[in-house]
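User: Here's a chain of 218 residues. Predict its fold as tokens.
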Amino acid sequence: MRVLLIEDNLRVASALSTALRRRGHSVTQATTAAEAIEAGPVDLVLLDLNLPDRDGLDVCRQIRRHDKHVAIIAVTARGEERDRVAGLRAGADDYVVKPFSMAELQARIEAVMRRAARAPRNEETLAAGPLRIEVNARRVWLADREVSLTRKEFDLLMALARQTGAVVPRDRLLLDIWQTTWAAGHTLEVHVASLRAKLNDPGLVQTVRGVGYRLRVG
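Assistant: Prediction complete.
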């Protein structure tokens, strides 16, 4: 199982990662909200609500907006009833208060994943040239090879794939993905370059100078 561990306490994160890997899970670590949002698709998120750059509840809401099926467990020192209620309302499937035992966390993980497995899903798959995109699972396949993308890279690819062959204006991509029509540091261009590199086909995402980008057909 792919686990995203969002925890800024390095000692706690190291101990949890080791315990999870011993149980056979693949673990990606993030110490900030920014790192968490950029992480690739996973099956389970373990989320500390006390992050240095952003409130964990906001991160929970954003992750839930991007993927309504991913399992989220809040793992935090906030133990008041109002905190538990806020966490569950923000989109967490369960709420574990520190300190806790690994046995308890593992039991809660198993319970959450059982519920996720039983939940009905309307799986959507998009085909765009050599690409196959599993929308709900947020997974991308190039022929028989899975391509690991960050959240923003996946969102960018989706925006282009839903209009394959058509030019998607630069401002529309910025608005849809970054909720702004202005971004510093050539943000869009950097993500396009990264996406092209991971797809191993620079011509798949085409630049229409002065307008935007399009996904090549065929």
